[in-house]
Amino acid sequence: MLLTIENILFTAALIIYVVTMLLYFLFAVTKKDFFAKIALITEISGLVLHLAAIVIRGIAAKRLPLTNQYEFASAFAFGLCLVTLIFSLKFKFRALGAFAMPLVILIIGYAAMQSKEVHELMPALKSSWLGIHVSTAIIAYGAFGLAFVLSIVYLLRDKMKEGSFLSKHTPQKEKLDLIAYRSICLGMLFLTFT
Amino acid sequence: MKKLWKFLTSMKFAIILLVILSLAMAGGSFIAQNQSFEWYAAQYSERTAAFIIALGLDDIFHSWWFFALFAILCLDLFFCNITKLPALIRRAKAAAKPKAGVFGPFVSHMGMLLLIIGFVLGQVTKTECTVYGFKGETKDVCDTGIRVTIEDFEVSFNEDDSVSQYTASLRATDGEKSASGTASVNHPVKLLGYKFYQNSFGYTALARVTKGGEALEEGRIIAGSGFRIPGNDNLSVVFNAFYPDYIFIDGSGPATQSGVMRNPGYLYTVYYGETVLGMNVLLSGEKITIDDYEVFLEDPGYYTVLQVKKDSFVWLVFLGGIVLLAGLFLSFYVKPLSIRNSEKMRAESETAEEQEEKERENASDH
Prior knowledge:
The complex is a heterodimer of chains A (194) and B (366). Chain A is mainly alpha-helical and 194 residues long. Helix content of chain A is 79%, strand content 0%. In chain A, helix 1 (2-30) packs antiparallel against helix 4 and helix 3 (69-90) packs across helix 5 (129-159). With 366 residues, chain B is an alpha+beta fold. Chain B has helices at residues 2-8, 11-30, 37-43, 46-55, 64-94, 104-125, 314-333, 337-347, 352-365, and strands spanning 127-134, 138-140, 147-157, 163-173, 178-184, 189-191, 194-211, 214-222, 226-228, 235-243, 246-249, 253-256, 265-272, 275-283, 288-290, 293-310. In chain B, the strands form four sheets. In chain B, strands 1, 6, 7, 8, 15 and 16 form a six-stranded antiparallel β-sheet that branches. Chain B has a four-stranded antiparallel β-sheet with strand order 2-3-4-5, with no helix packed on it. Chain B has a four-stranded antiparallel β-sheet with strand order 9-10-13-14, with no helix packed on it. In chain B, helix 3 (37-43) crosses helix 4 (46-55) and helix 6 runs antiparallel to helix 7 (314-333). Classes of the chains: A mainly alpha (194), B alpha+beta (366). The A-B interface holds A 31, 91, 93, 119-120, 122-124, 126-127, 167-172, 174-175, 178-179, 182, 185-186, 188-189, 192-193 and B 158, 160, 162-166, 184-186, 324-325, 328-329, 331-333, 343, 346-347, 349-353, 356.
């Protein structure tokens, strides 16, 4: 019963992430603020639904939902989207979603193709360290994923001419580099700990 | 002389050392370790095999030059940081608050050093031993003087037949004191100063040999071992493998459906000298008949594999790790105001879009 709800929430989150990506693309093409604002709302809603799906799965399985490919990929996509949201707000880079959402969808799409069965933990995974290890790994991977996206934007901006969409709607290269650096710092700290 | 010292404590030298060490470690991953000359000769060629053995590439991680490189790296790490400390202190005095951030990299490096020292001291002084046995057996723990009795070994299952936990009840004694406790996977038990880890397991069976109804010999054996038929020099039986929940898969052979002992199947081979007389799977209630001998394999059980360790420097490794993390945190998040300001200025540089908007606003004002 709970797992059916989880399934519905997960699928809803996935659809909403796709909608968010499309909205950010529309913002990119039309340069209208309206799309960016709606995209932000849908991004946050997607995150909330995704989080609910993860929490409900944890309740249903009676353990932290971070043990198999499906659970980890789902949590990774969540982590990446969360880090993207926080960084886009902190550094006032609204169009970041246009570049990061495709990666989020790729990962959550991969998760959707895995077996969603809930299995009991094998003895080797029965440890209090499991939760700490996987959650710090998710934050680290999310941060590195974001650094990857930012670096791609940097490279694209480097190649495109001045005056194109990219040079007008993305921050200066120095700022992109700085955000990517901060993201890697966060990732490195958490990866060392994981 | 001073130039040499400057080079030896420079970052350049550290990087050179790191590159050499990484190549060595990569070698250790790509070249199979601890194999024989014949193995390498077969895998690569005789000349390459000789080259590998001569340079110690067959056991890289225990070779003297690997240790030497690492020792030099540690010394370089230490001196590199110590010599730069006075300059750091001066920078910290000149910087605005919070000053601690300046020491971030220094603290990180010291943390790494503690970690390495803790690891090396641990490796040199530790004891590590593997003990295996089934319920009721008492075994020596290598040469520690401790004997451990396996009072019980239980495997518990979940509803879907997957394993829930492996638990061993142990009693250790060193001749004077004794201590007891249970060890399960991820939950080792500390007895008499040594840590007992529940590592692995295997299967056992009770083997009985009779001749014309008369019991000849019986004893518990572990899967993978064999025994001779008493009174006959040539006949022997090997208990190859055990299937707790036996099924036969067409096209692939004997297998087990789960770990639950629902339908025990004993895979055995009968030998006459070196010749195989027969091989089959024995099920409950069945027996092996060889001439006028009867061999029974029954009463299946488990044996546990325990890893016994004593490492007095784990705390130092942990401390090193915490110091390293603290150093990282200092480097990234505790920044003197001057650095933070310059970063902020770069971060606040507007996008072209925002600049345009500002210009439009300014223009409309006039």
